[in-house]
Fold this protein.
Amino acid sequence: MLLVALLILALALFAGGFVIHWLFVAAVIVALLWVISMFTGGLSRRGGAL
């Protein structure tokens, strides 16, 4: 029973780390797009900041 609980805990931690990793990657991509749009003036035509 302890082995099953450890297996479930390990799988949950692995899945959580996987999700957090891809959320971090998505946040970096969104931040890069935002910075590029600020330098190219993409947001200034729509009235400034968010």
